[in-house]
Amino acid sequence: MLFELIATIVAGFAGAGVALLINRMLVGRLPRWIVPTAAGAAMLATTIANEYGWHERTVAALPPGLEVAMTVEDRAIYRPWARVFPLVLRFLAVDRATMRSNDALPDWRMAEVYAFGRWHAPRSRLVMVDCDGGRRADITTGAEFGEDGAIDGLAWRDTGLEDPIVRTACAG
Description:
Elements: H1 2-25, H2 34-60, E1 66-74, H3 81-84, E2 87-102, E3 105-117, E4 120-130, E5 135-138, E6 144-145, E7 151-152, E8 157-158, H4 164-170
Antiparallel strand pairs: 1-2, 2-3, 3-4, 4-5, 5-8, 6-7
Helix pairs in contact: 1-2
């Protein structure tokens, strides 16, 4: 966040400098409002570029095995350009590298799911996925292992096989 603020301020100075240079080359023929307008436009363009580039930069920095399952696009009214070009501000990723299964229940997978948000710290939770039944459940502290190897006390949600978390955890 600090680096983005610094980049925005530097872009403002650069925009103002370009406007001053052009005005000097034209021997002062441009109106005086051009310099602050150019600075503001450069700062706005830098902020928009940082917003749109966040998702790609974050996904590129993910460790191997962490696979993006779902993205959430934002089309806020105070971002009119996002109506035409939606902005990704949140996404979920499944850690397939550390995913576990049980020989007694081969269609069940236990995976760590990470939630990433633009201005939020990443959060994680353990999720149990039933690939055969198309359902998933968050593993909470009240869950216990049963005698058959299953986890008792899960609140299952029938999401279907097209649920992004189920689909990603059960792929391959």
